[in-house]
Amino acid sequence: MQDIRSVLRDTKPGASITAKGWVRTRRDTKNAVFVELNDGSCFNGLQCVFDAASLDDAARASLAQVSTGAAVAVAGVLVESPAAGQPVELKASGLTVYGPSPADSYPLQKKAHSFEFLREIAHLRPRTNSFGAVARVRNQMAFAVHSFFQERGFQYVHTPIITASDCEGAGEMFQVTTLDLDAIAKRGEPVDWTKDFFGKRAYLSVSGQLNVETYCMALGRVYTFGPTFRAENSNTPRHLSEFWMIEPEMAFAELPENMDLAEAFIKHLLSWALERCGDDLAFFDKRIQPGLIAMLDSVRSSTFAHMSYTDAVKELEARKDDFEFKPFWGCDLQTEHERYLTETVVKGPLIVTDYPRDLKAFYMRRNDDGETVRAMDVLVPRIGEIIGGSEREYRHDVLLDAMKDKHLDPASYWWYLDLRRYGSAPHSGFGLGFERLMRYVTGMENIRDVIPFPRAPKQADF
RNA sequence: UCCCCUGUAGCUCAGCUGGCAGAGCAAGUGGCUGUUAACCACUGGGUCCUUGGUUCGAAUCCGAGCGGGGGAGCCA
Predict the structure, then answer these.
(1) pLDDT per residue as tens digits for the range A395-431
(2) In this structure, is residue A121 part of a structural domain?
(3) CATH code of the domain containing A270
(4) A336 with A364, same domain?
(5) How many domains does chain A have?
(6) Distance between CA A391 and CA A375 in Å, rounded?
(7) What nucleotides of chain B have any atom within 7 angstroms of a protein Cβ?
(8) pLDDT single digits (tens) A63-87
(9) Looking at this predicted complex, what is its ipTM?
(10) Same domain, A92 and A164
């Protein structure tokens, strides 16, 4: 069986084919019934034309059950379409209805629905234009992540999803337990975590970075790509409780090489989308985010701007009256600051580097000035921070000092410190939020609409 | 977690200073037409989110709760 994508692309008029898929719309005329069939293989559907006179009795009976959402097979001959709107269509001679879809109760109508409504029917929304397109682009972007790293000699490492160390330091964690908490609460006893599954408290990972650094110090160039969990009570269109993150890590690489990798990575992903998702992007450009394709195309051939944190603050101080939060050296960059820098000052992607060390994680390499670290944030218009990374502190004693500064217990990082004791080397890496990339590439506003089944505070349906 | 907005038909929404529940689309029926967000006519369709209060009377005003959206923080 051919999917509709290959029918539209490869099949010559005159060929007999059978197309299977789901009915998007049906339009009746006196002598013919037009059924638009979509099978998800591509954005466009196949128009099937039923000529009332040429149908056998069985097909005519089945036709009564054809309505939006029904799963059907249509047999016929592919012909050039006499009408505008599609180059070819299927002149139907046979019809099988596998699963009807009663029109009086099927939630999806042949009209536009709000994304808020579609979120409530996440099991049906992939059948819409928007979510079908998101799913196909998401698939291509995942593939592009691997193609980028594999072409450059990076090896894919699977870091653990469950972690028993609560020292990853990147936010609130979900706890994992097999204890019967109800029973313990009823007995009014304190919880004895040594009796839990792992013999201690366990959590879902908030980052694979610390683990992947161990493989970086053995394989050289590595990356992770997997689910990540944050129990923060974030209620925004750019945060999820469960999201997918890509974390490359390069041995013997310092911050400039890290920035180059991040820039090449973003450009590779955008090029891939432009080359392989043309129809889907055309839809997003037309209906979701006008100008999207031109924007992606211009970023692909641009050079990312670089700016140190110190210079960024100078830039902000020149316009300080425009901001609710007055910028000063040492302040964390607010969303309004980041957007001003990327959208107004450089009008494109911007990499901000060398932040004050008080603002950043303990593992980032300290600069010689003693005050800043070799951090980098990649900011893009509309999305804000899409990548966060750094050169890592590879000097044992400086790392130990930074941990003490942040009131972390070195004992629980013993294996991480071991990497600095034996064969330590400069290395760098970053994290890219896959769904933030998806927002950037598709133009979709809400991050809950670029992942099939979003998890967020008070939201874990489906 | 904080601030603002919001919850009315299957969907998107209107409903004013409190006084009989509305429109468009969708659905059903009929008509017309190689249609393509089809078109025309008619018909059916309501726990006005829940709860408490004010009032002769609440979709409307007030309190609480729950849900949704936007902004902020946290971050990817």
Answers:
(1) 999 999 999 998 888 998 999 999 999 999 999 999 9
(2) no
(3) 3.30.930.10
(4) yes
(5) 2
(6) 7
(7) 1-2, 10-13, 25-28, 32-38, 66-76
(8) 888 999 999 999 999 999 988 888 9
(9) 0.90
(10) no
